[in-house]
Specification:
- The chain is an alpha+beta fold.
- Helices cover 35% and strands 16% of the residues.
- A 6-stranded antiparallel beta sheet has the order 1-2-3-4-6-5.
- Strand 1 and strand 2 form a beta hairpin.
């Protein structure tokens, strides 16, 4: 004859496997049911999670009519206690930040959802690879502004007082142009006429004796 205690024990035995199966289904929900969202640029993105223990991999794939791209994050979110209770909410919190971007793969390199803010850094997801080169800001996930041409630097104002500048301006005067006097060409002088005694001495006497010869020849000329 069944007693009430026996009936309760049998009911508990039947419900335990069902509850365990339900808990397992909830845990596997994040792996089997991807999270989908739209970015600020209207890209449709899908968050696919694989792995559970050593490393959890998040592959983020986005596409639109004009483009498609993907990126991956790695981490150990299971080191965070709240994650083990509700792993899907961990990635939902990630999604809240990603959907605010024009390009979901331009998020920060390291993402740590709010629910695990007190957990160790092992629980955060770290950027690992992407379908393009991340060449702009990694901190905010925004594209850099177009390069602006360099503006000319203003010349520093003079520190000299105005009175000194005025005095300096007045002191600079152009020196008057000096007129060069025209040099008059020297008038040609009439050639001196060589005397007969001197000419005779030059022709017939040694150079050292030309003075004496000139004197003697002059005496005979008189």
């Amino acid at each position: 004859m069944w007693t009430q205690a026996s009936a309760l024990l049998l009911l508990a035995c039947c419900l335990c496997p069902a509850e365990a199966q339900s808990d397992g289904s909830r845990r596997q929900n994040i792996w089997d049911d991807p999270i989908k969202f739209n970015t600020k640029a209207k890209d449709l993105c899908t968050m696919m999670i694989t792995g559970h223990r050593e490393y959890t991999r998040l592959r983020l794939s986005c596409q639109s009519n004009k483009r498609s791209y993907w990126c991956e994050y790695l981490g150990k979110p299971y080191t965070c206690s709240p994650y083990n209770k509700n792993p899907r909410h961990y990635f939902v919190q990630m999604m809240w930040g990603l959907r605010k971007l024009h390009n979901a793969c331009q998020a920060p390199k390291v993402i740590k959802p709010h629910m695990c803010r007190k957990a160790s850094n092992d629980s955060q997801m770290v950027f690992s690879s992407a379908s393009f080169s991340r060449s702009w800001s990694e901190a905010t996930g925004s594209r850099p502004a177009a390069a602006q041409p360099a503006r000319p630097q203003p010349q520093p104002a003079s520190t000299r007082p105005a009175s000194a500048r005025q005095a300096s301006t007045k002191s600079i005067r152009v020196s008057p142009r000096v007129k060069t006097s025209q040099q008059t060409s020297p008038q040609p002088t009439a050639p001196t006429v060589e005397s007969f005694p001197k000419r005779m001495a030059r022709q017939y006497c040694w150079r050292s004796l030309q003075g004496v010869c000139t004197y003697i020849i002059g005496l005979f000329r008189h």
